[in-house]
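Contributing new records

If you add data, match the layout below exactly. Sequence lines come first and carry their own label; structure lines follow with theirs. Keep one chain per record. Anything else will be rejected by the validation script.
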Amino acid sequence: MPGQRSITEAEKLAEAKLGGIPVRRAQMAAVANMYRAATTVRHHLENSVLRGSDLTWTAFVVLWVVWVWGESETRHVAEEAGISKGTLTGVARTLESRGLLRRSAHPTDGRLVLLSLTDEGEEFMRRVFPAFNEEEAFVTSRLTDEECLGLADALRRVVLQVEEEGEDRRRSLLDGQAPAPRRSGRRAQS
């Protein structure tokens, strides 16, 4: 079962499968391990500190974004959280029903919605974030402070590469065409 394999086993299987295929192995390993690390950390945090608060990773990230940035338009919160506006709508409704988030109309453009934390949401983040940060320390405990800062810097550079050069690269790969709309992976029924 794939979920039962260690990172070392997965790397050996990938290497065996690739054989003589000419690929950039160092870059492949970096991206694969970014994904593995992000998934592993997310699952750990959801199943530990966030479990007690009955929050998903996405709900916590939405609260974090609004806590840090203050009252914000939904489109900005969705972008910062890395989710679609549709996903944000459901998450915001759930957080609003729990009394942690407030949705309100934009004062000058009724089409826009603003999100802000309630007093209970502010208190919640002040209480939960230190526990969340303790788990951040746990998952990075095999790294020194210097290694953590180096890793953060390296990942920041990866993000900047995609933010600053990604659109041009996508256009080049797609011969100037806009990307096709995302699909679920299912074939259209005939």
